[in-house]
Amino acid sequence: MSNAKLPSFKFLIGFEAAARLGNYSRAAEELFVSQSAISHQIAQLEEQLGQPLFRRKGRGVELTVAGGLLLDSVGKSIEQLRNGLARIETYMDDRLVTLVCPAPIASGWLQPRVDRLLQAHPDLCPIISVDESARFIDELDVDIAITLEPLKQPDVFEVPLLTDELVAVGPPQGAAEDVDGDAGLGLLCLEADLTSDRIGPFIRAHFGGLRKAAIYDDPRLLLDAALRGRGIALVSRLLADEALRTGRLRHLAAYPGLSLGTVWISRTNGPSRLPLVREVFDSLLAFSREDALIMSHID
Fold this sequence. Notes:
Blueprint: H1 9-21, H2 24-31, H3 35-49, E1 54-57, E2 60-63, H4 65-91, E3 96-100, H5 103-110, H6 114-120, E4 125-129, E5 144-147, E6 156-170, H7 179-183, E7 187-190, H8 191-195, H9 199-207, E8 212-216, H10 219-227, E9 232-236, H11 241-245, E10 250-251, E11 258-268, H12 275-298
Parallel strand pairs: 3-4, 3-5, 7-8, 7-9
Antiparallel strand pairs: 1-2, 5-11, 6-9, 6-10, 6-11
Helix pairs in contact: 1-2, 1-3, 1-4, 2-3
């Protein structure tokens, strides 16, 4: 049976419509064909399968057992095709540029700059994804990837975008400017950092005297706790970028920081899918250079 010839897709479409609507005439209307065309298609399908698929019921039809089994497979397949076609139609919009970025950088650095992107490129409709498994340029509809390490893919142009650092931050209002005063707040940190071979020893060496106020498994929850004034937080500087620039958090410079390395930005090498892709890429690079100058004066 696995070697059986597949029925005509046109026959399957007619069958699915008749089964769903329970009537050959309504199926014909939906598909813009004659009722006799639907009857002929189903008759040919039944002949090829060697099974009756419908039985008459009043003025309509109902499925036989074989018809019900076929509908289960055909209905799911047609729905998948329709969804796939709808997705393709969405991505045909030449205003769309897809950016893939780690969640902390997307929420802390990229998202606050979307308004600047839209001002620079009024026609832009960005698709921002934090799915780091879909970071292969032009392979999974990714135009620009922001990553913690270079992709090193063929035909991909990539350059450093930002540098990141683990920093201590705390609430600005009424907070003492010295380490002893800040220490009373307690420490907020990530569980993964405490168990990290590199970051764990750094925390124990420089923050071991602080009581643990809370431990999180998501950096965005950690930042939220810091914004609520629950303690001193050890966070990625890029995640806390907007909060530091707007004064909602204060960088506690009395505590040392720890480099988290370079963040890279990538696009296809040579002509892009759309001119807008390269324009957005260049804008993000320009933003990073401007912001580096601003951040150097915050401390």
